[in-house]
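[audit] Reproducing an earlier prediction to check determinism. Same input, same settings, fresh worker. If the C-alpha coordinates differ from the archived copy the diff job will pick it up downstream; this log only records the rerun itself.
[audit] input (62 residues):
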Amino acid sequence: MLDDRFHLTLTTAGRPVAHGWWASESTARRKLASWVGEWGDLPDARVTLVDEETGTVLTSWP
Protein backbone atom coordinates (compact mmCIF):
# COMPACT_ATOMS: atom_id res chain seq x y z
CA MET A 1 0.00 0.00 0.00
CA LEU A 2 1.21 3.46 -0.84
CA ASP A 3 1.89 5.77 2.11
CA ASP A 4 0.13 8.66 0.37
CA ARG A 5 -2.38 6.65 -1.61
CA PHE A 6 -5.19 9.20 -1.94
CA HIS A 7 -4.44 12.09 -4.29
CA LEU A 8 -6.53 15.26 -4.36
CA THR A 9 -6.23 17.70 -7.25
CA LEU A 10 -7.71 21.17 -7.65
CA THR A 11 -7.86 22.48 -11.20
CA THR A 12 -9.20 25.75 -12.50
CA ALA A 13 -9.70 26.52 -16.17
CA GLY A 14 -8.19 23.07 -16.87
CA ARG A 15 -4.88 23.82 -15.10
CA PRO A 16 -3.69 22.23 -11.86
CA VAL A 17 -3.62 24.68 -8.97
CA ALA A 18 -3.09 22.46 -5.92
CA HIS A 19 -2.31 18.85 -5.06
CA GLY A 20 -2.45 16.89 -1.83
CA TRP A 21 -1.72 13.28 -0.89
CA TRP A 22 -2.97 11.40 2.18
CA ALA A 23 -2.68 7.85 3.47
CA SER A 24 -6.25 7.89 4.81
CA GLU A 25 -9.24 8.01 2.47
CA SER A 26 -11.41 9.61 5.15
CA THR A 27 -8.86 12.41 5.63
CA ALA A 28 -8.68 12.96 1.86
CA ARG A 29 -12.48 13.16 1.66
CA ARG A 30 -12.56 15.75 4.48
CA LYS A 31 -9.91 17.75 2.62
CA LEU A 32 -11.99 17.54 -0.57
CA ALA A 33 -14.94 19.13 1.24
CA SER A 34 -12.64 21.77 2.68
CA TRP A 35 -11.13 22.58 -0.72
CA VAL A 36 -14.58 22.89 -2.30
CA GLY A 37 -15.54 25.33 0.46
CA GLU A 38 -12.35 27.34 0.10
CA TRP A 39 -11.86 27.34 -3.67
CA GLY A 40 -15.16 26.24 -5.16
CA ASP A 41 -15.88 29.73 -6.45
CA LEU A 42 -12.78 29.87 -8.68
CA PRO A 43 -13.57 29.91 -12.41
CA ASP A 44 -14.14 26.37 -13.70
CA ALA A 45 -12.94 24.88 -10.40
CA ARG A 46 -12.82 21.09 -10.20
CA VAL A 47 -11.65 18.94 -7.28
CA THR A 48 -10.86 15.27 -7.94
CA LEU A 49 -9.96 12.47 -5.52
CA VAL A 50 -8.04 9.50 -6.96
CA ASP A 51 -6.91 6.25 -5.35
CA GLU A 52 -3.33 6.14 -6.64
CA GLU A 53 -3.00 2.43 -5.86
CA THR A 54 -5.86 1.41 -8.17
CA GLY A 55 -6.04 4.46 -10.44
CA THR A 56 -9.75 4.84 -9.61
CA VAL A 57 -11.39 8.26 -9.45
CA LEU A 58 -13.26 8.06 -6.13
CA THR A 59 -15.16 11.33 -6.47
CA SER A 60 -15.01 14.73 -8.07
CA TRP A 61 -16.70 18.06 -7.68
CA PRO A 62 -18.71 19.42 -9.39
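[audit] rerun output stored. Observation attached for the diff report: The two ends are 29 Å apart (CA to CA).
[audit] end
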